[in-house]
Structure formats: C-alpha cells, structure tokens
Design brief:
This protein is α+β, with helices and mostly antiparallel strands. It has two domains: 102 residues, no CATH class; 46 residues. It contains four helices and six strands. The strands form two sheets. It has a four-stranded antiparallel beta sheet, with no helix packed on it. A two-stranded antiparallel ribbon has the order 1-2. 5% of the residues are buried.
C-alpha cells in the first residue's frame, strides 16, 4: 500500500495524528494517521512502527533576530505538554529543520500517562462513531506484567471529549455569485456565521454557537 491512494477522507479537521479508529477503510492490520497535509488536502496512514519521527519542519516563522546560517543546538518539544528534548536546528530557505536526538513516545511517566489518556479517548470516540461494542476493562488482578512492566490505571471521561470533537469546525466550500459576494463583504457579513445560522434555521435547531 506504500504511496497508494486508499480512499477519500471527510475533511482534515476530522483526523488527528495517531488516530486509528474511524478511518472508514478496512485494513489487514492496524493503521494510524501519520501525517496531515493541508496544502495537498491529504491524510497519510501508516503502521504504528512509522508513527514516530526524529525530524520535523516548520515554516511561517517570525524571527526576532536574523536567523543563524549554521546549525545550532536547542532544547525543543513537538507538543506543548511534552518535556523539552535535545535537538539540532538548521535553517533551510524559509523554513527550519528540527532534528531531535531521540524520537519521543513518552519521555517520563507523566508524559506517557498523558499520551495514553489522549490516545484512549480518541480510540474510544472512534469506536463510538463506528458503533463498536466497548469492551469491559480487564481487572488489574488478571493482568500479568513482564519483569520490566508496571500496571497503571488510565482513566478517561468521555462527555467533555465528545463535546470537543462534535464542536470541531469543518471546512466547507461555498460558491456564490460575484455580485452577492461583493454585497456580503460591503455589509461585513461572516460567511461561516451566516451559513451556521441558515442551517440551524432550516433544520429547526435551537442551539447557541
């Protein structure tokens, strides 16, 4: 399946890096969202072994001082709650390349637990969307950890997560005559708000956005 088009997605906003459930396609083995590309409007899937990378790129930067021409060492993180890690930055044209010394899959107990909780929330939400049966948790007394493993309770509360996922914005393309677009701009109308108001009225839904 390497590099092949597998299907059509339902909007980038509906997918999260690391997501496994709710992909809408059958696979012979577990597949995960590895990358989202807004420019190409593509979602890239892979097996779990390719989820983590030591390199990331960033653009649209705002330099306070002129960027250095040589590579320099920093402490950086790819997630706001992730511990800082040693990395090397190189300026490449209008973007930077950040190469971490080691890939991260949870660098300490707190971060690992946060990532596990986030992953479980997303997994359970995907199962709900697919109308899968949610299995009962295995009692801790029935687990048999290995010599280098520990049992940790990962607790989640679904209602606020469901609300967060359901309220995510979905990008839609709207086509209107040019004259109407000019009138709307002159009136200072917000297309998104007008569309939402119209849909709520047409569907007879009383809901505060």
């Amino acid at each position: 399946m390497e590099g092949n088009v597998l299907g059509r997605h339902n909007g980038l906003i509906r997918y999260t890096i690391g997501q496994r459930k709710g992909l809408g396609l059958p696979f012979p083995r577990p597949m995960y969202v590895r990358e989202k590309n807004a420019r190409d409007n593509t979602v890239t899937l892979s097996g779990e072994e390719r989820l983590y990378s030591k390199v990331l790129f960033a653009d649209d930067l705002n330099w306070i001082v002129p960027p250095p021409s040589d590579a320099f060492r920093v402490k950086a993180k790819s997630r706001y709650r992730q511990p800082e890690q040693e990395a090397t930055i190189r300026v490449e044209g209008g973007r930077i390349r950040v190469e971490f010394d080691e890939p991260s899959q949870g660098d300490n107990d707190e971060n690992a637990l946060y990532m596990a909780r986030e992953g479980l929330l997303l997994h359970l939400w995907g199962m709900e969307q697919d109308k899968d049966d949610i299995p009962e948790p295995i009692p801790a007394k029935d687990l048999r950890p290995g010599p280098d493993q520990v049992i940790v309770l990962v607790d989640v509360f679904m209602p606020p997560f469901r609300e967060r996922m359901n309220n995510k914005s979905v990008a839609k393309t709207v086509t209107v005559p040019r004259w109407l677009d000019m009138e709307a701009k002159s009136a200072g109308l917000n297309y998104s708000q007008v569309l939402q108001d119209g849909l709520l009225e047409r569907l007879g839904i009383q809901h505060q956005i």
